[in-house]
Each structure stands twice: as C-alpha cells, then as structure tokens.
Design brief:
The complex is a heterodimer. Chain A is of the alpha+beta class. Chain A has 12 helices and 8 strands. Chain A has a 3-stranded antiparallel sheet. Chain A has a 3-stranded mixed sheet with strand order 6-7-8. The chains are: A alpha+beta, B alpha/beta. The structure holds pyridoxal-5'-phosphate and FE2/S2 (inorganic) cluster.
Amino acid sequence: MAKNDLIGESLWDAYSDKVTRLMNNPQHQGEISEEEAAERGNKLIVADFGAESCGDAVRLYWEIDPKDDKIVNSKFRSFGCGTAIASSDVMTELCIGKTVQEAVKITNIDVEFALRDNPETPAVPPQKMHCSVMAYDVIKKAAGLYLGVDSESFEEEIIVCECARVSLKTLKEVIKLNDLKSIEQITDYTKAGGFCKSCIKPGGHEEREWYLVDILRDTRREMDEEKMKAAAEAGTSGDFATMTLVQKIKAIDAVIDENVRQFLIMDGGNMEVIDIKDGGDYIDVYIRYIGACNGCASSTTGTLFAIESTLKEKLSDKIRVLPI
Amino acid sequence: MKVYMDNNATTMTSPEVVEQMIPFFSEIYGNPNSLHKFGTQSRPALSSAIDQVYKAINASDKDDIVFTSCATESNNWVLQSVWIDKIVNGDKNHIVTTEVEHPSVLATCRFLEEQGVKVTYLPVNEEGIVEAHTVKSFITEKTALVSVMWANNETGMIFPIKEIGEICKAKSVLFHTDGVQAVGKIPVDMQDVHVDFMSMSAHKFHGPKGIGALYIKGSQELTPIMHGGSQMGGRRSGTLNVPYIVGMGKAIEMATENIEEKMTSISAKRDRLEDALLKVIPETFTVGKREHRTPNTILISIRGVEGEGMLWDLNRFGIGASTGSACASEDLEANTVMLAIGADNELAHTGIRLSLSRYTTDEEVDYVIQHFTEAVLRLRAISSSYALVKPTKGGEAGECHIPAHH
Ligand SMILES: Cc1ncc(COP(=O)(O)O)c(C=O)c1O
Ligand code: FES
C-alpha cells in the first residue's frame, strides 16, 4: 500500500488499446461447420473450455489440413468479459498458419503479450491476467482431440501459477535457494501469485490442485529436515560443534552408553544426562547419578573425571561435566 | 446520450442541495461550537437540518440521530461498540446478521470473529429475503445484537424489519438495521418499528458523499468510537461538518416529501423498463417480486452474456450500470448476494443491476431499452452459450464448481 494504491486503478483504463479494439470488434469470432471444412477436404476440431457457471467459457474451432496438420482457419465463440473475448480473438489469430504441434506451444503468456500495445506495458491489470489462461487450455484440448492424446500430456511440468506459468519445480528451487519465508517473497521472486491470486490459497476465484501456501509450508519443512539430516551426518562424522541440541544430547548419550554406563551398572548405579548449556567457551553437560552412584565418594572425583575425559576425547574438549 | 442507472451505488447531488450547502463554505464558516457570532451564525441551519432528518424518518425527540462520516462509520460504530459494551464488558458472545449485508457490516463481523465473537450469517430465501422466523430461531441468551439490513443494495429486496424488530424486542436483543438503501426510497417510520440503531448515508438519496448518520432509539447507551472534543453531545467527536449536514437535511427532506408519489412515479418507469427487457430479450429473468423491492431496482440475468462484458457494451452507449459478476470485482470473488440467492451459478456472472432515481426520465428509459437490447444481441452473437456447432466428441467441458464463499 502506498500513494498509488489509495484509490486503486480503474480496471478498464488499464486495458491496452488492443484489448479494447478487439473487445469492440473481434476479428475471428464465429463458427466453422463440419460441411465447410469437409468441402475443402479439411478436418474440423471443436473444443470447449470453461463453463458459463465459472464465468468464463470458450469454444475454439480449428480447420486443419490433414496432409500437413496445418491450421488453415480458426474461429472462436466466448462467454466472458472483455479480456476473455480479446484473448480468445488473439489466440485464434496466433493459431492460424501453424501446425497443431506448433500451436500447442502457444501459452497464455504469448497470448497476453500479443495483446500488448508495446512490449513493456502489460495488456491487462494483474487480476485479469487469468482470462488468457483459458485460451491456452483450450488449445491444448483441441490439439489433444486432433492427435488423439490426453491434453495433459502436453504439459511437461506441474504448473502451479497459471497466470505467471511458474512450475512446482521452480517454486521449490527458488524457495530453497533464496530461503524464502513468505508468499510475498515468492511473488517478488517468481511473479507467482501476483495476478488473479487463485494459486495462493484455497477459496479464491478458482479451485486449484496446488496452492502456494502449501508448497511454501512443505518446502520449508523439507528444508528443515534437510538441515537436520545434514546435522545428523555431521554428527556421525564427529563434528560436535555443528550439531543441534538434540543431536548433542544423543551423541553424549551414545558415548556414555558405549564407554561409561556399563561400569556404573556393574557397581549397581547409573546416570542420566539432564541438560546441556552451550556457553561458547564451554559446553556444560549436567548429569544426575542414579542408584549406588548417588552419594558414592568417587562420583565427584574419579568417576566424574573419567566421564569428562571420555566426552572430551570423543566429542569436544570444551565439554565440562557437572553433576547435580 | 448519457444515462446513469447506478443509483444504488451513489446518486447525483441535487442542485437544490448543493445550493443550500454553498453558503456554509466561505460565508458562514465558523465552528458552531464557538461562542462568537461566526460560530453561532450556522446554528439555525444546523437545527433545521436536524429537524429535517428527524421528520424524514419520524424519529421521536427522545431518540438521537448522530451525524457520522458515512454509513460505513455508522455500521462499524454499532457493531464494534455493542461488542465492547455487551461482549467485552458484558456476558454476551454472539451476533446475528445475514449473508447479504454490505461489506461494511460483513467485514466488521469477520473482524469481530477474529476477536472471538460468534457470528451467525443467516441465509436468504430464493427471493433474496431473510425471513423473520429464521432470525428468531438463531437468537440465543448469548445474543448481543441482530443486524439485518432494511433493503438490499444488489436486489432491492425489502426485509421484514417490523417483524424482526418485534422478535428482538420480545427477546430483549438489540436490533440494528442498515437503512442505507431504504431511507429516501421507501417510507421509513422509526415510531412504527422497533429498531435500536439505524445507519444512513446521504449520497444514496441525492445528498453529498461523506456524510451519514446513526439513529439511536431512546438515546440509549453506545460507547463512542470517535473520542475527542465531545461534539454531538459527546456521542461522536469531530468538528461538525456544517455544509454537509445542511446538505443531508435538505436531501432527506426532498427525498421523503410525498414519498408515495415519488415511489409510484419511479416504479412506473422501472416496471416499464423491466417489462420491455423481459419481453424483448428471450432467456432473461429478474430477481425478486417487484412489490417486495425498492421501487428503483432491477437485477436482471441474461443468459450467455457475462456481466462485465455487458457493462462494457452499455458503457459504450453511455449507460452506467453495475454487475455482481466476479469478473468485474477487484478480487474476482463471486458476489455474495448472487451466491446467497442460490439461483444458478450463472447469475453470479450474468447479473446486471439497473437502479433508477427520481431524476430518471422516460427518454432515458427508452434509450436503455433500445441499447441494452443491442448490446445483448452483439454479445450473444459472440457467446459460446449460443454457438450452434457442437464440440468434437470428447471436446466438451464440464460444469464449473465455484469455491464456497468465506
Ligand atoms: C446497504 C449499504 N450499506 C452501507 C453502504 C455504505 O455507505 P457508505 O459508502 O456511504 O459508507 C452502502 C453503500 O455503498 C450500502 O449500499
Ligand atoms: S494462477 Fe493466477 S496468480 Fe497464480
């Protein structure tokens, strides 16, 4: 929030002239019939995407020359706002003259770009970016129908944010690499979530399979686990200083189990580690004697010295053992 | 031609109202609470503005009508102060409201929920009305407040305020109504109904923006939210906005004088417009029985035409209307009222609201009938809902699932 956000922007003023022009006068609106296509020896593909109840629906018509899979003509019909109609129009334009295999590479980013008046200025305000996604989805569907494959097979990655076309893989990498902690940071780094916001969390404009909040939480958890694992590995390789507190306790316990406890038990006693305080210069290990050791004379001298020197030798010479 | 058909959003300030306000900017500008003549000079106009407002809603002299900055402030004041008085400093924990209130009530209720208050959002029936018996069944001993709007801004539907008032009185629960869409449109008589608090906003009845009021029955307790120099008897501090109060007084007087006559004249135009649109355009319907609506409002759904697209075309013809379409809203969220009515999901995207005023002329109505129809023809010619060639086998799309609201 700052000065520019105080009264917000006027939605329609943020549309490019091209969006306005195409909304007022779409160039490729209409239908192609089976008969027309057959007359020219071509194949007709008609694909729907969206529904009136979603607020956005488009029907795409492709007339394809079966000899070379080229889209020789394309039309659309659309139920939607100005941006949806203009996006559909530009999408059909982009399809004409391409082969089906080429057309399927057209993304919503291409559609939005084709609607710009100049390369620098977005064609639509952020919350309208999603209207172009449908254009991309319907192309995949039409191509799937023509080629007889599942339209999802054209997508090589899991796209989490459709508006910005950011994949799950990219998101995880960016979160880890830059140690991102918030959704705002993710949007700053990747643009994901910066448009219609549907991909941020459930309850938005559209229901999604993946949400940024879950990805962030899960990736942070993974990062924590990785950290622990790294620390644990450092522990087995004897690097006591980089261990977490819990690992330190475990390492101390392990050393005591292996080298000390059996002797204490033989004498009818035992001990337990109560706490560890890492003060920098010293690492203080607080222990408590149990059974026969408790009150035994050497527990404050010989035994104590033995425990301390074993820990010093095996783990760190900063260790001091303090019985309580 | 330019035609403004969005009078539920705001209205033109009547020239007569502006005329009354003008002297109070640069001629009579003293602070009415000052002792000198500059200040006291504005007092007669203030008193008569207060009289005008009391008379317009038939408030008793025992009641308070406190001027505020707008209805949003009035709504916040009631909800937040009842929370402080009856929940934080009392033994209640519950507020009852409806799913179709204005955001100034709904967002405040959500805020209170975050503070631990229990809030019940009552559903509406298929006509968009909250029925009195529904309100009754949700009141408990822990209920501090019932807040139900008098008339709805999207549909114009008038709610059974008299019955709800009786129920609240019998159950000794405070009753607030957001009267913004009722005052100046239909008769509002505070001595005929049992209402503890009512919010109003002047710009909805041809007064200026940025001035509203809160009616408080019997001058009862309600902790102020604006603390300061104890203006308005200590109920709402801040130097009195003299020109705007004068404007609100004049506007409410003009709107409510012979209100039945005005209603008849507006509803005649509204009905003519509605009849014509329903007749000329197939596959179209309107929400709510006319006799249950404020006389100026039409919410019409046009199959196959998305709301924002329709507004776009109307705008090109110089017609200003509004839509509940999710597409046209900042956050793209489906409209609560549309969803609450429970009509097909389509309505959430195809609803267009036309709201007239007493300044709407017959020529304007004719112009809208003509161009509304043209816009529908153009957009249906583009619409996939009216396409003839069917999708290739396997190319059909399923129905949509709108994520549940809040
Ligand atoms: C029913 C209702 N309540 C409250 C308000 C808020 O009025 P204001 O914006 O003047 O505070 C409005 C108008 O937007 C309204 O229609
Ligand atoms: S999907 Fe629209 S912002 Fe991510």
